[in-house]
Design brief:
Helix content is about 30%, strand content about 25%. It is of the alpha/beta class. The protein is globular. The model has no long low-confidence stretch (mean pLDDT about 95).
Length: about 270
Amino acid sequence: MTDRQNLRVGIAGLGAVGLEVAKRLIAGVPGLALAGIAVRDADKTRRTLPQLGGIAIRPATALADDCDVVVECLPPALFREVAIAAIDKSRIFMPLSVAQLLENWDLVERARQKGARILPPTGALIGLDAVRAAAEGDIRSVKMITRKPPAGLEGAPYLVARKISLTDLTQPLKVFDGTAREGARGFPANVNVAAALSLAGIGPDRTQLEIWADPAITRNTHRIEVDADVARFSMTIEGIPSQNPRTGRIVPLSTVAALRALVSELKIGT
């Protein structure tokens, strides 16, 4: 990478995922440079992450002004304006709130018109390469069964609207059974993995999703079952939750891996 400029990365949001991505970029990833961040409290961020040095802190919608890649790690409500800012400047937009992409599908056509790219990382999911490969043929069915500790689902709009309480749960409770689109809408901060799976395979309306609150587990567990003309396979991942119980510790590492793939001379997998 010595004969080319570093790819400039901007991170919108420094929560559990964004902070870890920022730390790893600051520590050094060949071909990548952290060029800007967007946070609500700049002073607090400087105290939390003194390694930032002279890295610019700016509004999330301004990151695309001089960053080649904008990584979105924000609450769902802020998704669209950051996405539009990156897309309209023909940047690479890397969303972590993949569920919001289903609710803002016009952004895909907008990216085509503007010459931008939308590249969600794999995140806490397993087997997206296999699903994408199978999708080149005929996939008959895809189902994902997600099990999380109750704290990882608390506050989801679907639960709030139906007055479903997970407090003092003593046994597993199935809280949702439907399509990936419906699940992403009802659990926008909890099952971005289901949205990513649906986009890799047969779409959000044919991908089936179950969500369980399970007080007996400590890890976010996702099982995928795929039936296609070329293969039948199932896969399970048990992710250790981060400081934010809604997301796993593997998510920031997946994001760094996705960024690294943009500049690496060798990329493994589809």
